[in-house]
Amino acid sequence: MLVNGKWTANWQPVQGVDAKGGFVRQTSSFRNWVTPDGSAGPTGEAGFKAEAGRYHLYVALICPWASRTIIGRSLKGLNDVISMSVVEPELTDEGWRFLTPDPINGATYMHEIYTKADPTISGRATVPVLWDKKQNTIVNNESADILRMLNSGFGDLASSEYDLYPEALRAEIDALNDYIYPRLNNGVYRAGFATTQIAYDEANADVFAALDDLEARLEGKSFLLGDTLTETDIRAFVTLVRFDAAYHGLFKTNLKRIADYPNLQAYMLRVLAIPGIRETVDIDHIKRGYYSIKTLNPGGIVPRGPHIPGLYEVAA
Ligand SMILES: N[C@@H](CCC(=O)N[C@@H](CS)C(=O)NCC(=O)O)C(=O)O
């Protein structure tokens, strides 16, 4: 992580630990919003007007939080409006390293993007990051915000085919997001990075209670809120699509696979089949990335499977 703008080698993938040995995720530090007219959003400063070619997204394909934003960019027809750089799936001793040299800032590592925005910054150099090429700074590094601003912050530059946060469903979306995030999205991490049995047991129970609830909720429904895809589906999907390939094995959330839940498996494949989504999912990056986490898998061996029907084919 960065301490006063300097990379510290004492790097651990565990972000923080509470008194019971539970995993604690760092809160995001840049919270500005791109808006159609450049006025301030719900948090942060004004001055980030939607403009084609002005913004750049830094992502990892392994990362579920970054994947929210890659999917949002794709569904909103913004792939040509917002450029994007991808990091290697394996974290290095200096954090995320770019697959190919970063065309915007000439950086090799993600932490250089953070120190360019703030030379004295302390904290983890996480993805995703939305970068402003005009002001040379980070607009926002919180995926929930970025997904929402991709939906409506780019105005006419974006496609109106999907409204991922429709007015009429906002209360329900917010409530379901608040339910899914701690139990499922972050729940798998709480299980995987637990340092005590009790922290693992609690997290694992939360994960499967949430999956059982979502399985029941999807009975007779195409998407979590009904007939239309919303941001909640994107937020659930990014965890479901990684589950059997990574979390079930590495994070020890192995009571069941998504393939064992008929509604969840069908739902995951339904979302995957939406034009623009499959291209954002890279199971090889996901497997290599997660299984390279040394504290959880010191030998770095990546399993050959699992075969996931409709998602990841493994020849016999
Ligand atoms: N709150 C952030 C969390 C992002 C996050 O934790 N990203 C992970 C990858 S999945 C990361 O970059 N970790 C690097 C590190 O912790 O050093 C968001 O949702 O945008």
Question: How is this structure best described in words?
Answer:
The protein has 316 residues and is α+β, with helices and mostly antiparallel strands. The protein has a domain of 109 residues: Glutathione S-transferase Yfyf (Class Pi), Chain A, domain 2. Helices cover 36% and strands 7% of the residues. The protein contains nine helices and six strands; from the N terminus they run βββαβαββααααααα. The strands form two sheets. It has a four-stranded mixed sheet, sandwiched between helices. Helix 1 packs antiparallel against helix 7 and helix 4 packs antiparallel against helix 6. The longest helix has 21 residues. The protein is globular and about 50 Å long. It binds glutathione.
Q: Brief description of this entry?
A:
The chain has helices spanning 64-75, 110-117, 143-152, 170-185, 187-192, 197-217, 231-250, 262-272, 283-291; strands spanning 2-3, 6-7, 55-59, 83-86, 129-132, 137-140.
Q: Give the overall average pLDDT.
A: 95
- Shape assignment: globular
Share in β-strands: 5-15%
> What is the number of helices?
9
Determine the structural class based on helices, strands and strand pairing. alpha+beta
The first-level CATH class of the domain at 167-275 is given as Mainly Alpha
The name CATH uses for the topology of the domain at 167-275 is Glutathione S-transferase Yfyf (Class Pi), Chain A, domain 2
Low-confidence segments, ≥5 residues, pLDDT <50?
none
Largest sheet: 4 strands, mixed
Based on the coordinates given, report the CATH architecture of the domain at 167-275. Answer: Up-down Bundle
- Ligands and ions found: glutathione
Run of helices and strands: EEEHEHEEHHHHHHH
Range of helix content: 25-40%
Distance between the termini: 41 Å
Number of strands: 6
Strand order of the largest sheet: 4-3-5-6
